[in-house]
């Protein structure tokens, strides 16, 4: 049985990497997401915000130029720690 490739083996750095952050539909969600991203991957970002069908949640998508697997993993962890965030894809 073949082992599944790890994320770090599939990516070549630097590369474009998109985070999709699902959280409660609060107006501060995009700002909170950008605050974390700016800490680890400073840049000029325009997050794409989409409401869920019922409007309870929003998804915020932001693409960064990732420079290392450590950066990618740190961002997953810290984005997931935002209070109103439910999931990071």
Automatic annotation (TrEMBL):
InterPro entries the record matches: UPF0250_YbeD-like, YbeD-like_sf
Superkingdom of the organism of origin: Bacteria
Record GO cellular component, one term: cytosol
Family the UniProt entry places it in: Belongs to the UPF0250 family.
HAMAP family: UPF0250
Record protein name field: UPF0250 protein A8L45_14825
Protein species of origin: Veronia pacifica
Lineage: Bacteria, Pseudomonadati, Pseudomonadota, Gammaproteobacteria, Vibrionales
């Amino acid at each position: 049985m073949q082992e599944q490739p790890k994320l770090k083996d599939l990516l070549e750095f630097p590369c474009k990497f998109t985070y999709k952050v699902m959280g409660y539909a609060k107006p501060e969600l995009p700002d909170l997401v950008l605050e974390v991203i700016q800490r680890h991957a400073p840049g000029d970002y325009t997050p794409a915000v989409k409401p869920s069908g019922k409007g309870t949640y929003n998804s915020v998508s932001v693409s960064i130029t990732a420079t290392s697997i450590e950066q990618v993993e740190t961002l997953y962890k810290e984005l997931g720690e935002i209070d109103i965030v439910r999931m990071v894809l």
